[in-house]
Amino acid sequence: MGRFSKGVYRLLCLACAVVVSVSATSLIGCGEDEAGTGDENGGEMTSGDVASLRIVGQSGLAADPTGTGEVPKEVAVGTPVVVAILPLDKSGTPITAQDALTDVYANVKWTSSDESIAAISSAGGTGLGGAALIATKKPGKVTITATYKSLSAKVDITVK
């Protein structure tokens, strides 16, 4: 847990869960496909339709459900960063089919290239939008990677 006490860490995880749960609901929509037929899977889309991944920042997810939110490139030591995974289809469009999202969120694996600089812990669970909490520990450069099946997305962060 690094620089965070257990109480602060739990509070950060709870905040992460709330923000990303609300954001995931925005991504999923109201259970209708684009044609308004009520098909919550958007037709035939499944987890096999996931062609690529994008790592998005907390504020981007909450404010922009299309997933254009950027993860900060520079972060001060001790500043927590909440990230989430956004699965994309072959055209680069965010996937909104519930079954596909559930599979990605349940199976995404997060790693840090250097845990001594920034550790990452998954918020876990399909209701949390594949979210993870980055705890920044000391100055340096680190790469955060999200992997789902054979796909991966990376983001570089400099901790100052």
**Whole-number tally of structural domains:** 1
CATH topology name, in short, is Immunoglobulin-like
Shape: elongated
Oligomer classification = single chain
In percent, how much strand structure appears in the residues?
A: 25-35%
User: What is the distance, rounded to the nearest whole angstrom, between the alpha carbons of the first and last residues?
Assistant: 18 Å
CATH superfamily: Immunoglobulins
Give a verbal description of the structure.
With 160 residues, the chain is α+β, with helices and mostly antiparallel strands. The chain has a single domain (6-159), classed as Immunoglobulins (Immunoglobulin-like, Sandwich), CATH 2.60.40.10. 24% of the residues lie in helices and 30% in strands. Mean pLDDT is 73; it is low at 18-42 and 60-67.
